[in-house]
Design a protein that fits this description.
Elements (H helix, E strand, L loop, with lengths): L1 E6 L2 E4 L4 E9 L5 E8 L6 E8 L4 E3 L7 E6 L4 E6 L8 E8 L10 E2 L3 E6 L1
Parallel strand pairs: 2-11
Antiparallel strand pairs: 1-3, 3-8, 4-5, 4-9, 5-6, 7-8, 9-10, 9-11
Length: 121
């Protein structure tokens, strides 16, 4: 069992930045993937970025490349999503996900509760 908790959402103006955190605790694995998804009202859950561990290879959705950065603090068992140059279309509930394969579909084993990000124009 893996439990995830997201932190750091909020309201920001277009062009601003936010950093989301996802803390993972519970059962440990030597190889896994942590990813961020987002879901806007009336839309399907959308892949944002994934990070493989170990190795730290990453995969970003085209819509966030060059603006968002995923990173990991091994000691804190935390994954971060640094979001810069935010746009109103980035407004969504952001979810942290855990799985054994890097997938761009929401077929992950464990999910956090989500954190709201709102970008005003």
């Amino acid at each position: 069992q893996v439990q995830l908790g997201e932190f750091g959402g909020g309201l920001v103006q277009a062009g601003g930045s936010l950093r989301l955190s996802c803390v993972a605790f519970g059962r440990t694995f030597s190889n896994y993937v942590m990813a961020w998804f987002r879901q806007a009202p009336g839309k399907e859950r959308e892949f944002v970025v994934g990070l493989r561990w170990p190795g730290r290879s990453t995969y970003y959705a085209d819509s966030v490349k060059g603006r968002f950065t995923i990173s990991r603090d091994n000691a804190e068992n935390t994954v971060y999503l640094q979001m810069n140059s935010l746009k109103p279309e980035d407004t969504a509930v952001y979810f942290c996900a855990w799985g054994l394969r890097l997938l761009t579909t929401p077929a992950y084993d464990y999910w956090g509760q989500g954190t709201q990000v709102t970008v005003s124009s």
